[in-house]
Amino acid sequence: MSKKVLHIGSTDKFIPPFIEMVREHFEFNDHDFMLRRGMAHDQLQSYENIQTMGKGKHKIIQHYLTMVVKMHFADKIILHGLFDIRVIQLLWTMPWLLKKCYWVIWGGDLYRYHKIENDRRLKKQEFFRRPVIKKMGYIITGNEKDAGNAKLWYGFRGDVLDAVFYPSNVFTGDLCGSTSTCEVILVGNSATPSNRHCQAFKRIANEAGSDSLQGNIKIIAPLSYGDPSYADEVCECGKELFGNDFFPIFKFMPYDEYTRLLDSIDVVVFNHDRQQGFGNLIQLLGKGKKVYISRCSTLWEYFNSIDVVVYDIDNFTLKPIHEAVALHNYHKIKSLFSLERVVDDTRRVFDHVPRNLDHCDEKRNS
């Protein structure tokens, strides 16, 4: 039997482009995909080696039973995010599989650690999550700080593979300035509380003074996925502070349309309290936009470590980015986040041989 890589996740917006990249640059038949339905399900192409979970109790059970069989026969299991409690529970009951598991950290799957004290449901799930993460064979991340937090919070003792893993992290644009007659400010990337929109809005309003009332700034807040009730709170706060200069986005935008939106931005405010929106930031920094982020996010240290200039949200101003800084960021991002790099990093992961593979084979054949 040829080597098989089993991919487990959901059809989030990152996954359909990732599958197409695997199909184009690798031996596609060596990969199986078992996916729950997500926001980008309609963008998924139909292939024999992709199985999506159907609706109804019987089909859900069938999906996970098939997954158990495939996990045992796979040479490598790649977990695209660690959100599905059923997958976590399966791995908890079959810990011998963890030595060949590779967890691609998405952000929320790691930083939910901060929410467990105030959420009884999450607290119960930690009973399964903690030993699974601790015994996980490998973590895939380009952010060393996230791997460090997995070790600190969960006792992770496996290996870390430094890799930029998704085509969404490929910068394909060019340096560009806004053509708008007003200052266009992008705030956040989703309707999740970790964006801390209202805190960011207040900082912007304090700096802008009464300018927003005169139409001199435009606040854009993408809220197409996340928590609908939180999205309502964001809208109420945005409308209160900026009135008709506040523009929430509720629909999931096609890639080309979203790229044009990013081209129009002058200033970016990502007030996240954790790593989030990495792919968006790559595109925006590469385009030469002025990006403010919080020092709470591990991305603050990350961008500084690769010599990409970002600004502290605590020192927010409406001053434009210096042309030399924009050009510097453009060249850095273009060189570090190319398709060639993503393909090479992905190949290293696919070619990596898990430790104790013979042990896994024994389990498989027993």
Question: In words, what does this structure look like?
Answer:
It is a single chain. With 366 residues, the protein is α/β, with parallel strands linked by helices. The protein is built from 14 helices and 13 strands. It has helices at residues 15-25, 57-73, 85-93, 108-111, 120-135, 144-154, 197-208, 228-242, 255-263, 278-286, 298-305, 323-336, 339-351, 357-365, and strands at residues 5-10, 31-36, 50-52, 76-80, 101-104, 138-141, 159-162, 183-187, 217-222, 246-249, 267-270, 290-293, 311-312. α6 (144-154) links the parallel β6 and β7 (159-162). α3 crosses α5. The radius of gyration is 21 Å and the shape is globular. Residues 358-366 have low confidence and may be disordered.
Tell me the series of helices and strands, N- to C-terminal. Answer: EHEEHEHEHHEHEEHEHEHEHEHEHHH
Helicity range of the residues?
40-55%
How would a crystallographer describe the biggest sheet? 7 strands, parallel
Outline the low-pLDDT stretches: 358-366
Tally of DSSP β-strands: 13
Question: Largest sheet, order of strands side by side?
Answer: 3-2-1-4-5-6-7
What proportion of the residues form beta strands (DSSP E)?
A: 15-25%
How would you classify the helix and strand content by structural class?
alpha/beta
- Radius of gyration, rounded? 21 Å
